[in-house]
Each structure stands twice: as structure tokens, then as C-alpha cells.
Amino acid sequence: MLLVAKTYWGGAPFHFRQEPESAEVAPLLLETADHRQIQGLFWTPRGQPVPRVAVVCMHPRVDFTRHYSFPRLLAAGIGCLGANTRNPNNDTDTVHEQIILDVGACVSFLRDRGVEQVILLGNSGGGSLNAFYQSQAKLAPGLRLKKTPAGAPTRLESYTLSPADGLVYVSAHKGEGRVINQCIDPGVLDEHDAFASDPTLDMYSPSNGFRPPPEWSEYAPDFVQRYRDAQIQRVKRIDDHARGLAREAAEAEKLHADEGFTRLPAHEQRQILLREAFEPVLVIYRTMANLHYADHHLDPSDREYGSLLSDRPDLMNMALTGFARICTPRAWLSTWSGLSSQADLMLTLPQIEEPTLVVNAGRDREIYPNTDAGPIFEAVAARDRTFHSFPSARHYFEPEFGATRAPDVEALMDLTVDWIQARFA
């Protein structure tokens, strides 16, 4: 059964379709402040090994080393560093308080090379990642976050973080946790049984207003309210479970560090060590259940039916592909919980004053005009802030299926290049 949207049939839609002309590329292996290694590609205009202005383009898990924005940026003389975080193509254990150090390694590399102005380009989940980095980098070390949502020390106060000079958000959502708050299925009754369900909270049941796809559904206001409330309650239950598991590990670590540990019987020592070493994994069933997928009356736009990942979210909801399906407790709390994650644009944007460009794609199937794009722009604290919407564009500004050219990308880059050059060139 093929459920993945055809957006992905011809390759990743966030990669450029043709190699940049008159450009050179160097593979990078960068070391982060906490001594992890990340890989990236540094693209520069030919004959200009140290461009005056460069962008950093990253995503919590997706490979943006060949991002579709690069050809036009390079043609304008702007360097492009596309890098993977320490969790490429796998966010099972993605902790945002750690991966912002990966962004920092990229910014530091550019500064050390002599780049004068650094722009963070955040596409999709890259937006909340970049804003989280910028909000922490701007703080005095002693004022940075001390703990992750799971309670582990961040050690951010001991690292040098260089703030960027400007930020661009393209089809950015509020944060991966906020996405889950909207798309987690509240009908799940048992986290160990994907089929144990409350029929009164099933958005894909005709009795609740669902119609056969691709016909749009229309849900009653009272159902919408009950559904949204129940989504938050499910997130809270998973949060509580994840925190309990994190506490057990922390308690075992404390017992191991206690001076009396070595006097315990060998079998008790081993049990403590096993508990300290244990890394549980959460399986989060059914996370493709956003009412917006099937009801475009709730937040009207010109989007097609379904989600970014599937034209049949009612079926994809039961498949492996989806958001946050498998994750550690610390990753759930830091990245995927909309109640606990600190990588949240509603929290970070009010702390950032650098020039900011927010771009909305009018036909986006995951980011919606009133739910996301409008509130995101209103949260921007920068005096120099710009909002632009492209009515015909999809999430990655990809063209119609099978097309060889992407006119929406060209229109986006006309705007973005002009915006950067007006402020930094």
C-alpha cells in the first residue's frame, strides 16, 4: 500500500534540481562545542572562497546540504553552508538543547573563515531550531537554560555561542512539539495498542463528520473543541510517563555516585548500574490526525487535501511513517512535546531582535495561515521584520509532480536575495 505523498516520489523536494553554476563545494567535518562531529557542505561562489555574507541551512533531522535555495544565493555571491545535525535522518534521540550546538559549530566555522555576516535560513523545522539557537546565543552564558525538559544539565553556560546577524523562516512551523499538539490522535486509549480507540474522538469516523477522501470533511465546533482538548491531555500523559522514566535513570545515577555504592552487595550494584544504563524507547502510535488534514474550513487556504506526507492521512495514521513515532523520553520532552519543548517559536521569537524575514506558502499542507503563519509573524520582536506569502506555493516550494523547473522557488529567491542584499550586501 503506497501512502507517501507523490511530493516525495521523485526524490527529496528540499534538494535543488540542478547543480549550482559557477560554484565550488567543500565537504566539512565540524566539531561541536561538546565534542561531537557533524558533516556538511560549504558552497561558495567560484573565485570567492570567503564570501562576505553566508547562510547556514539546517534541520533537526533532514539533510539540507543541497537545499533548493542554494543556487540562487550562490549566483548572488552569498555563501551557503548546509549541514546535518548529529542526528541525520533519524530523530529518535534528538535533544534540541544539544543540537543547537551543531548550529553553533556552523556559525563559528563561518566566523573563523572571515565571513562577516551570517544568516540562519530555517525551512520547516529548521525555523524553530535556528530561533532556539539564536535566543540562547544572545544571552549571557550564565542566563542560558540550565536543564533540558528531561532534567539533564545542558552545560550551555560553558560554551561560546556566536549569534547570527539575520534570520529567514520559510514555511516554518511553531516547533515540532506544537506540530504534535495538533496532529496526535487523541482517541488512543492504550499507548501499547494502536487499535484501542475511543470512537467519540475518532476524526476519521463518519459519525464524527469525516467524509471519504479526497472529499473535504466538516467537523462540528463542539467536536473540534473536545478533540483539541483531548490531544493536549494525551500529550500530557506521555509527558508524565517520559518524566517518570527520566527520574528513574536520574535516581540510579545518584545512587551510583553515592559514597556508599561500593559497600553494597555486588548484585545490588549491578541492578543500579543496569537501571542507570537503561535507555527506554517510546512508541507513539497514530500521529497523523490533524483536523486540518480533512477539514479546510477550520483554517481556509488553497491547499490540497491531506498532509505533507500523505494524501491518505486516515491510513498513514496507522503506518510507521509520521512524526515522533519512535523516540527516547528525553527526545520526546525536548523535541516532540508541545507542552515541554523549549524549541518553540512562540517562546523564542520575542527574544530575537535581528532582521527577520517570514515566508508563508499558501498551499502548505502542514503550516496554516491563521494557526501558524500569522501568530509566528506577530511573535517576531525585531523592528526590521518582513512577512510575505506566496499563494500558489507548497511547503518546499516544489512544482507540480513531474515538472523539471520550480517557479515558486525562483519567486521565493527573488524575494530572499533582495532582502539579504538590502541589509547585508
What does the secondary structure layout of this molecule look like, with pairings?
Elements: E1 23-31, E2 37-45, E3 53-57, H1 70-75, E4 79-83, H2 96-113, E5 117-123, H3 126-137, E6 166-170, H4 176-183, E7 188-190, E8 193-197, H5 221-257, H6 266-277, E9 282-283, H7 291-294, H8 313-316, E10 326-327, H9 329-336, H10 345-348, E11 356-361, H11 369-379, E12 385-390, H12 407-424
Parallel strand pairs: 3-4, 3-5, 5-6, 6-11, 11-12
Antiparallel strand pairs: 1-2, 2-4, 7-8, 9-10
Helix pairs in contact: 2-3, 4-5, 4-9, 5-6, 5-9
Textual characterization of the structure:
- With 425 residues, the chain is of the alpha/beta class.
- The chain contains twelve helices and twelve strands.
- Helix 11 links the parallel strand 11 and strand 12 (385-390).
- Helix 2 crosses helix 3, helix 4 crosses helix 5 (221-257) and helix 5 (221-257) packs across helix 9.
- The longest helix has 37 residues, at 221-257.
- The mean pLDDT is 96.
Q: So what's the overall shape?
A: globular
CATH topological fold name of the largest domain: Rossmann fold
Helix content: 25-40%
Give the terminus-to-terminus CA distance: 50 Å
Low-confidence regions: none
Can you count the beta strands? Answer: 12
